Amino acid sequence: MTLRGRRRIGRGLPHTRKCPSGTTWGRTTCQLAMASAPKRPKVWWEEPRAGVGPGRSLSLTTPLPPQAAAGSSARGNGAADPVSRFLAWCGRAGVQLSPKVRLSREGVVAGYGMVAAAELQPGEVLCTVPRSALLSQHTSSIQALLREGQESLQSQSGWVPLLLALLHEYTASNSHWRPYFSLWQDFRSLDHPMFWPEEERRRLLQGTGIPEAVEKDLANIHLEYSSIIMPFMKSHPNVFDPRRHTLELYKQLVAFVMAYSFQEPLEEEDEDEKGPNPPMMVPVADILNHVANHNANLEYSPQCLRMVTTQPISKGQEIFNTYGQMANWQLLHMYGFAEPYPSNTNDTADIQMVTVRTAALRRARSEAQQRLVLEQWNFLCQLEMVGEEGAFVLGWDEVLTEEELSVTLKVLCMSEEEFKEYKEQDGWEDDSEEEENLTLSNEALSRLKPPCKQLLYDSVLLTLESYRSDLKAEQDLLHNKETYEKLSQREQQALHVRYGQKRILHQLLELVH
């Protein structure tokens, strides 16, 4: 039989998640459809950005004055409030705001946001930020120093040069960026789970995957600071002081970059040849909050960046950017907030790949069958369909890791004879027979063969056991307004994450029951 019309199962390790900046995130799972349009980088070992919900707030102390609508600045350098200083800086830096928008604390979902002061049509420019106003490793006052030491600053995250620039600019009394940083006089408003006490993180987020991701984040932050940042600072004592540029400040700046930085996408022809562009801070654009159904997007050109409307916006309506197609666990992990059900149409739930293996082993009725399951698992590993730290990702309408899950279910449900024949073919299958089976929409899930349904059903039940509470308990909390309002901010955000994941998992139970 020739290879024509056949498919080799396996397309590279799907289970090490990569953020748009190309760095490995703390939580390993396979998430598809993340690389749309220009967006902020999801940091690093797991993911960055603090966005819209109650979890995000900017440390701005007063509403912007009316002149903010037109982008004009407060007069004089002695303006007391940070917003006036920031607006004056924007004027000097050439940042332009449309007269049809205003920045405000009122009428927005959290912290500061951008609100339409007049009706807007699709394609209108809301703000223009010249590249000279961006804060990055290439525009910092220590850019020459960073360029000179670039070889020693390479890291897993790829963020070290920007973070060093931020360490310097944030603490330098004469920094050009001081008015920008005055919006964040401290970083206490950043409430990522990495700042929660470990006990609270475990209690509220067990089963969501976030605690494990945070542990990896913190380990990587400590390693990066001790092995790269500290040696660089010690070799430049005239610029850095470890007593001032501490690990705690470094961790806060990591969260700041997670929450507010942007990353310029590569051109299509460069995606396979070049490494990802480094993250950068984009004043004004970083004030916009996020929802899945956004109405504005950031566009890039050689001279400047523009925030542009994507749909009609009524006067008084908040203007939202998008951080990408992100599940609630990603939003909370990287940005400190989650969208309430059912707002986040991009929400997902995970089934750990090893959980499916455990379910298959549990249904094996003899040692011989258990050995067969382990042999099948090892073969799936060779095909790069599964991994010890991987996860199958479930969306509301389909399985996002459809090929991986489809092949895994099929192989783990094979008899010894079927598996022997499959191995002899080395994972090659007829496209005509398998193409439809690899598409796991909700309808396709309901049509799986009974053994595959049962294995998937058992795997979902095992996954649900990893949470501290059941779906009904979460529903009771959400539906009791008085009880819900007594919850802390963190408890509310964690509840939204858990509830969305459990809804998706219970939906899957119904489909394959």
Automatic annotation (TrEMBL):
Compositionally biased residues, Basic residues: 1-18
Key words of the record: Methyltransferase, Nucleus, S-adenosyl-L-methionine, Transferase
EC number of the protein: 2.1.1.-
Broadest EC class assigned to this enzyme: transferase
Span list, region Disordered: 1-25, 47-77
Pfam families with a match to the protein in the record: Rubis-subs-bind, SET
Function: Protein-lysine N-methyltransferase.
Protein name according to UniProt: N-lysine methyltransferase SETD6
Organism: Melopsittacus undulatus (Budgerigar)
